[in-house]
Write a structure and sequence with these properties.
elongated
Length: about 100
Amino acid sequence: MANKKVIPEFDNEESAREFFDTHNTVEFIEETEPEQLLVDPALKERLRQRREQRQMVTLRISTPHLEGIRRIARKKGVPYQTLIHIWLAEALEREHRDG
């Protein structure tokens, strides 16, 4: 029986980047737990309806921010682009409501 691999604690993002650049994350799959992403059903429906109205954009995001987004997306079990899209839609909805 193989020993369970544990993701170490990191002192900074640089050491985390170095670790994940040199290790296969599949080795740590047993340590992770899927997380349910709760999306407002009305928001989900609006996103579905707008699917044909989408436009491709290029957005520069700092490496640490993108890594954080990807980490959260993996934890939630969704593609990182989907998570960004959900967060943008929620922020726009909040601004429109509170605006």
